Amino acid sequence: MQLNRLSVHQLSELLKKNEISSEEITKDYLQHIDQVEDDIKAFVTVTGEDALAQARSVDEKRSRGEELSPLAGIPMAITDNICTKGIKTTCASQILYNFVPPYDATVTERLKGAGAVLLGKCNMDEFAMGSSTENSGFFNTRNPFDLARVPGGASGGAAAAVAAGEAAFTLGTDTDGAIRQPASFCGVIGLKPTYGYVSKTGLISHASSLDQIGPITRDITDLALVLNVICGYDSKDSTSVSVDVPDFKKNLVCDVKGLKIGLPKEYFETNLSPEVAAKIQEAVRKLEELGAVCEEVSLPHTEYAPAAHYIISSAEASSNLARYDGVRHGLRVEEEDVLSMFKKTRSQGFGDEVKRRIMLGTFVLSTANYEAYYVKALKVRNLVRQDFDQVFKKYDLLLTPTSPSTAFPLAEKVNTPLAMYQSHIYNIPVNLAGLPAMSLPFGMVQGLSVGLQLIARPFDEGTLLRVGYTLEQSTDQTRPEPALSR
Amino acid sequence: MSKYEAVIGLEVHVELKTKTKLFCGCSTEFGKEPNSQVCPVCLGLPGSTGVLNKKVVELATKAGLALNCEIGTYTWFDRKNYYYPDLPKGYQISQVFRPIAYNGYLDIDVNGQTKRIRITRAHIEEDPGKLAHSGGSITNSLASFVDYNRSGMPLIEIVSEPEIRSGEEAKAYLEKLKAILEYTGVSDVKMEQGSLRCDANVSVRPVGSTTLGTKTEIKNMNSFRAVQRAIEYEVERQIAVLEYGDKVVQETRGWDENRGITVSMRNKENPDYRCFMDHELTPIELTREWIEEVRATIPELPDSRRKRLIEEYGLPAYDAGIITSSLALAEFFDATLQKFPDAKTISNWMMSELLRLLNAGNMELHQAKVTPDGLASLLNLIKKGTISNKIGKEVFEIMFKEGKDPEQIVKEKGLSQISDAGQLSQVIAEVIANNPKSVADFKSGKEQAIGFLVGQVMKATKGQANPGVVNKMLREELTK
Ligand SMILES: [Zn+2]
Question: Domain named Asn/Gln amidotransferase: which ranges (chain B) (predicted)?
Answer without folding.
Answer: 331-478
